Amino acid sequence: MEWDVAEKPDQPERISEAEQAVMEALWQRSPLTAQEVCEEVCGPRGWSLNTVKTLLSRLVAKQAVATEPDGKRFLYTPRIARSDYVGTESRRLVDRLFGGRAAPLFAHLAQAEALTPDDIAEIEALLKELKS
Amino acid sequence: MEWDVAEKPDQPERISEAEQAVMEALWQRSPLTAQEVCEEVCGPRGWSLNTVKTLLSRLVAKQAVATEPDGKRFLYTPRIARSDYVGTESRRLVDRLFGGRAAPLFAHLAQAEALTPDDIAEIEALLKELKS
DNA sequence: CTCCATCGTTTACACTCGTAATCGACTACG
DNA sequence: CGTAGTCGATTACGAGTGTAAACGATGGAG
């Protein structure tokens, strides 16, 4: 009997910080083998190849990356766009810390002097464009 | 013998999301008893008083809140300012996702239409002030 | 055909987080 | 004086994370 399997609405599972490092490698260039990912990230983070493999598996489980067999090994490709990831992460922060309003975040960054003159110029340009 | 205890440079321990909810209550008004904190947060989050007490203990351990005995019970007060917390959290995000530059974050928010006209006006005002 | 390097998979293990139940001390009520 | 409520402290426990070793298949070098 085929009973209704209530497919979970597939809300995108959270990607952890270590996992993100792996995603960054794949966002930069893909598909990659586990080896290649390791060449990108093992050095900076001091990881072993095994660690990368674990992270890749978890990302596959989370449906964040896709695998494609290539002979003996696998090629890994991101299934979610970096911009999407960045989007939900920034939104989370803005919600959590600034009641969902972006302006206070901006105000905070400004006050904390986290804005370089370049940033300011860039933002001004963006604003001009937004208003047009 | 008194040997050198290498006091760890007391890098501020991370505050988790649940813990933040408790901090928010204390930032709004303090000092508070565990009871009072619970009155603020247990409803919205569906927590038990015990949960709040656990979170408070952890925050005390993390040196994020201070305790002051008040007869039988304790009064809890934040030891870190909300603006500091907000600061490090936003910085983390900007570092993690935008290479430390604030402008790309702004660009992203703009593109994602996460900016209301009000936000834009507010930011313009801020910019004007920054330039003066 | 054998053996080693290499894959992906499975298992491991300590630590944090979310969410509490339980415990021992104390106090206020009867 | 006993006892029920209340406090903070201790313990619990499953899920997720960071980090990896161990395992089993397999393909290529002799």
UniProtKB/TrEMBL annotation, chains A, B:
Record keywords: DNA-binding, Transcription, Transcription regulation
Cited SUPFAM superfamilies: Winged helix' DNA-binding domain
InterPro entries: BlaI_family, WH-like_DNA-bd_sf, WH_DNA-bd_sf
Gene3D superfamilies: Penicillinase repressor domain, Winged helix-like DNA-binding domain superfamily/Winged helix DNA-binding domain
Pfam family, one: Penicillinase_R
UniProt similarity note: Belongs to the BlaI transcriptional regulatory family.
Protein name (database record): BlaI/MecI/CopY family transcriptional regulator
Organism: Novosphingobium album
Record lineage: Bacteria, Pseudomonadati, Pseudomonadota, Alphaproteobacteria, Sphingomonadales
